[in-house]
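User: Here's a chain of 383 residues. Predict its fold as tokens.
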Amino acid sequence: MSVPCQILSGVYYSSVIPKRTVKSFKTKFGEIPLPVFFPDATRAVIKTLDSADIENTKTPGILVNTYHLYKDLGKRVLEKNDGIRQFMSWNGAVISDSGGFQVMSLAKNSEKRGFITDDGVTFKPQGGEKIKLTPEKSIQFQMLLKTDMVVILDDFTEPGCTYEEAKDTVERTILWAKRSKEEFLRICKKERIDEKNRPYILGVVQGGEYLDLREYCTKELVKIGFDGLGYGGWPIKENGEFNFDVPRVIAKNSPESYLLYGLGVGKPDEIVKCFDLGFYIFDCVLPTRDARHSRLYVYNANSIDEINVRDDNFYSFFDPSKQKYYYDNEPVSKACDCLLCKRYSRSYLHHLFKNDETTSLRLATIHNLRFYSLLMEKLREEM
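Assistant: Prediction complete.
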């Protein structure tokens, strides 16, 4: 494999980032203006919330996971419900992740839990039957889910791997991308799904920290032809900082009409910087997981109108479990209009967390999701 390298003194240099021409995300219900943040509803649920709760946070879509739904739900339920949306009574957009992250988190971490070949990945769930997921099976199942965007199965480049190991993951990702695209087109033809009504199909760029591999992978995926590309793999450097060089490489080598997706990118300040590079779709477990651990995101502003995401410190964290909020009758945030902030006090939320009430997790999760939907609204004003 011949990989072009453009690295000088540790800094990557390339052409100017093309300005994105795509401004909306098409769904079965119409178009959603970009950017968007889709929280992870891995098994078609966000813990402690129902679909109405999610909708009330003005969250336009969710992300579901192919591997977990394939393992836990199967095909027949989806066929009877005409897809995942009707099954969970959800009226918004849905993206289906391919199961690529589980290639790393499960199959690669332990031979007892699975293994990977060029044909696909075999998972060995504890106490269950083996599950073989190929690029074709991943696409087939995602088409059964009837989501608005399907994602190709990719070989996750593990953090800290050697150049040769990263190169292998890139080659396998490209191989799987070709097979995924072929299967996608076959299904669309068989089921007579025309260009207007088909879901988006997203390629995933791998290559780890090696920018020449990232560029090569991006260009090869563009040759295959997708509606967009995702920033795959681990985005954090060894020093704990976000690696912005990688999304920059992807953006610079992608057609301006492509949707760019920050897979797993979830810290608010990192979202803003990736947005500036042309990434307009994001998903992450952070807001919902943090909410369940008494970590709420709040804007450093006195009203929604005063929120400025261009300030260096535009947000901070609120921990309702701290004793100092025992008598505090103020809302968690004045720059929020969620159920928690409009109706309940810091004191009441402190009481709920102190007594391990499930309602505390629900209200905190609702709040964090509204924080993220407000972030998207503020960035949308800049489009």
